[in-house]
Amino acid sequence: MQPFRTLTALAAPLDRANVDTDQIIPKQFLKRIERTGYGDFLFFDWRRTAAGDPDPAFVLNDPRYRGAQILVAGKNFACGSSREHAAWALSDFGFRAVIAPTFADIFFSNAGKNGIVLVRLSEEQVAQLLHNAKTIPSYQLTVSLEAQTVTDNRGFSATFEVDPFRRFCLLEGLDDIGLTLRHAAALDAFETRHDQAGWLKAK
After folding, report:
1. Mean per-residue pLDDT for 91-108?
2. What is the pTM of this model?
């Protein structure tokens, strides 16, 4: 996965609390076997009208937020079922960071394993960012995982906490497979010894 150090990008406001994973990626799209392509279905029921056309009232269909890589959302983001597809959909759509007051625990783990930085800020701070993203054209934020800060060019500055191990993995771009492969030489040596021991025992 792609390392995350510092990102300066357009911020999109999703001013809704308790956004659940079935809203992030509806269940009818969970039959796919790939981990890519889910971005097309992100917030599908909100992004589309009953006729299947893009709903101009939904924030991510607003041209002002095209290309946004930072999502600012309400509390309890990604509650509901534990589907990892929610993280896949956000990542595939282009989001690299989500800022909210609180996140569902399982999603917090899934997002980190898929290269998405989740930033917990206070409700007051998130409300300020939501307001800025709605009212300031081309509003950008800088999320620094190295410094553990969120800033803009208008004086906003906040710090956030992150688990040291998760921070290390995100900085280095290591998912579970990548972490395992860091020990590839030791694993190969173990397998060689194991095979040799089995051959000697068979004799």
Report:
1. 96
2. 0.87
